[in-house]
Amino acid sequence: MTSIEQQSSSSAQENGLAIINSKAPFSSTHGKDALDIALIFGSFEQKVSLFFQGDGVYQLIADQDGSLLAIKDYLKTFSAFEFYDIEDIYVCQQSLSNRQLDENFHIDEVKVLSSIEFSAALNRHQHVLRF
Amino acid sequence: MTSIEQQSSSSAQENGLAIINSKAPFSSTHGKDALDIALIFGSFEQKVSLFFQGDGVYQLIADQDGSLLAIKDYLKTFSAFEFYDIEDIYVCQQSLSNRQLDENFHIDEVKVLSSIEFSAALNRHQHVLRF
Amino acid sequence: MSTLHLVRQSAFASNDFAQCLSVLDHQDSVVLMDDGCYNLKHSLMDSLIKRVDGSVNINVITSHAQARAIEIIAAVNAIEMSDVVELTFTHKKVITWQ
Amino acid sequence: MSTLHLVRQSAFASNDFAQCLSVLDHQDSVVLMDDGCYNLKHSLMDSLIKRVDGSVNINVITSHAQARAIEIIAAVNAIEMSDVVELTFTHKKVITWQ
Amino acid sequence: MKTLAVVVTTPPYSHLTITALTYVEAALVAGINVIGVFFYQDGVMHANEDISIASDEYQAIAHWQRLQQEYQLPLHICITAAEKRGIACDAIDNDKINNAFTVSGLGELVELTTKATRLVQF
Amino acid sequence: MKTLAVVVTTPPYSHLTITALTYVEAALVAGINVIGVFFYQDGVMHANEDISIASDEYQAIAHWQRLQQEYQLPLHICITAAEKRGIACDAIDNDKINNAFTVSGLGELVELTTKATRLVQF
Predict the structure, then answer these.
(1) Domains, chain A, ranges and CATH?
(2) Cα-based torsion angle of the residue sequence D7, D13, D19, D22 in order, rounded to the nearest 10 degrees
């Protein structure tokens, strides 16, 4: 879907931070800890992109409700990405289909990528952290 | 190998604690934390049995040397099991073969069990903890 | 000889659920809780449901599945935490897979 | 565009190594460290060695493998931590799979 | 008589701890005799008096305190695990340990396990 | 100029931390400019002055202190992560924080990441 855009930029200088989210949202603090980093990079006007792979893709799925678990639902904060100019949000298509998940997300502008595209998008960043 | 013994005791009253070890030895403290519980049960003369499954089977493999990692090698303490009357040490045959491991252990008296035997041995205990 | 198995981890991320299934006895019961709810969509669940012919009782904590937007399938009982307490004593022991 | 991948987890217990391989590019390098050393015996390693035709550089930290009594196979380079530091700067970025 | 002992290995800032709390409270409400909760591994972090969880997050420690007060529920922390995690247990009148918790050794776990008809780990 | 920033997320009692220490020391010995180590998640536990690890176990905290002194290596702990784990950061002259470590916000991680040619996570 965004392959033309990717190709045109793939030769550019890598820059910014990529954060790979690999954990499901409610049983560990990894998702929240990664989000805190993303938002601080955004507020410092540094480029940060979010990648969701493995069980991390569950963080994006629509119709979740952490309040049923008495959890403060940090997923709601994802809607602030636009405000922080966090625009590059990538999800691994293979991880979604392995988990029988539809492309039905609770935020807009999520780009569903094949493994090759996912890898290429990662490569456009200078640094990578993974949670 | 111990199936006759198992069958004869399988109708007996469950008693004692079974500890399932599921983690590899050197990257987490789970193995050591489980060992501490086993030894305290032994020193209180309470029945405790050790089960090794999944990556936990790596705790039993011969020729390891935690000192190469500057780790105090708690695996050496396994040789004290006899002193504490911890005699029932079971390892899952399937977990060994999945990992291409030989039945070459750093302590004696390890009983290699099929999944069905492993399950039956677990069932002879009243309580189970898993690390 | 029945055991209550509390399954708290996603089988997509770890092999705990597979280990649980390898020691699962007929007459045992399973409760999916926390990230264990994701296992409703895992292929191990299909084989479990087929294997057991209804002899293994499979449960999921309703709020834990709903919070994760996971649909509870017909072969599985939707239960509350108070039911888990009851199951604790109707089984002979509990193993937590976490 | 090359990336250095530090693999610290056992593929027998978690799916981190599989995720690493799914984004692995030719020209990338892999270092197996900590429990990642166990992956030398995992079927994913066989397919990695076959797949890459020698284009991906695969390394393991000698002391980490030896401590675990794991034999280092010929297709893999036995290295020290100082080599990992060097690889850090001969690649464009580092991803840690833990 | 149904007696229950519970082992908790997750810290107060883990959401998994809410599941343990919900289970223990459900048992108490059902009239089960919960003879004790033994906090092991990262579970001992509950007794760190200095922990400050944001007020809009789940207050696991306060919930354990409430159960302790309401039901006289014994809450034991493992001293070895606690010392490794910076919860100093050697001082007399230690003001760094939440007083809802009792500092115990692993022998207490033996005691609980021996007495309980069921042992459940979280 | 080769500059390196390191993120550590494992606590002092985890053996994984030894790998991070070995890596950082190897970088320093090789003359790499390590501009800082940022301790996040359970990594902040390193700064808890009350932690007591058995003397025959690996002394990760002492090793970080030595690197800090020998190479003037900046060691930052994340304040939010620290407060969640009972390391009180609000007091003036806080004697509960190991003085080899600096209490910082996540902004410091932004700074390190922006300046470093390589960022490595452990």
Answers:
(1) 15-130 (3.40.1260.10)
(2) 100
Angle between helices C16-23 and B115-122 (to 10 degrees): 80
Number of domains chain D contains: 1
pLDDT at site B13:
66
Q: Provide the residue count of chain B.
A: 131
Q: Which domain holds residue E12?
A: 3-121
Instruction: Report CA D35 to chain centroid distance, whole Å.
Output: 11
Structure tokens at B69: 């990692």
Residue in A34, F39, C15, A25 with CA at minimum distance from that of residue E16: A25
In tens, the pLDDT along B43-73 reads: 999 999 999 999 999 999 999 999 999 998 8
Bin E106: left if φ > 0, else alpha if -120 < ψ < 50, else beta: alpha
List b or e across B91-116, with b for residues whose CB sees 16 or more CB atoms inside 10 angstroms. Answer: bbbbbbebbebeeebbbeebbbbebe
Q: Is E78 a catalytic residue?
A: yes
Own/partner pairs for C53-57, CB < 8 Å, 24+ apart?
Answer: C55/C26, C55/C27, C56/C24, C56/C26, C56/C27, C56/C28, C56/C29, C56/C30, C57/C28, C57/C29, C57/C30
Q: Do E50 and F84 touch (CB under 8 A)?
A: no
Q: Are strands A17-21 and A48-52 parallel, antiparallel or unpaired?
A: parallel
Q: Which residues touch F84 (CB under 8 Å, ≥6 apart)?
A: E13, E51, E52, E53
Residue spans of beta strands (DSSP E) within chain F: 3-8, 33-39, 75-78, 102-104, 118-121
Q: Is E44 helix (H, G, I), strand (E, B) or coil?
A: helix
DSSP E strands, A39-119: 48-52, 89-92, 110-113
Nearest 5°: CA angle at E81, between E78 and E85?
A: 130
Among D60, D7, D12, smallest CA distance to B99 is for D12
Residue of F78, F100, F109, F112 marked active site: F78
Chains D and E lie in contact, requiring 3 or more CB pairs less than 8 Å apart: no
- Give chain D positions within 8 Å (CB) of A126: 92-93
CATH number at residue D44: 3.40.1260.10
Would the pTM count as exceeding 0.80? yes
- The whole-angstrom separation of Cα D36 and Cα D24 is 16
**Which CATH number fits the domain that encloses residue E15?**
3.40.1260.10
Q: Measured between CB atoms, which of F16, F23, F118 is closest to D89?
A: F118
Alpha helices in A29-102 (DSSP H): 30-43, 93-98
The answer to whether the Cβ–Cβ distance between A69 and E16 falls below 8 Å is: no
For chain D, the residue count is 98
Task: Kindly calculate the radius of gyration of chain E based on its CA atoms and give it in whole angstroms.
Answer: 14
Write the DSSP symbol of residue D19.
H
- A13 Cβ contact list (under 8 Å, min separation 6): none
Distance CA D87, CA D7 (A): 14
B partners (3+ CB pairs within 8 A) are C, D, E, F
pLDDT digits (tens, 9 = 90+) for A39-63: 999 999 999 999 999 999 999 999 9
- State ipTM: 0.95
The number of beta carbons lying within 10 Å of the beta carbon of residue E4 is 25
Which chain A residues touch E13 with a CB distance below 8 Å? 29
How many domains would you assign to chain F? Answer: 1
| Among the partner residues D80, D86, D88, nearest to F120 by beta-carbon distance | D88
Minimal-distance CA residue of chain A relative to F41: A33
Question: Over the stretch A92-115, which tens digit does the pLDDT of each residue have?
Answer: 999 999 999 999 999 999 999 999
**Domain residue limits at C81:** 3-97
Contact across the interface for A70 and E14, Cβ inside 8 Å:
no
- Whether the CB-CB separation of A47 and A16 falls below 8 Å is answered with yes
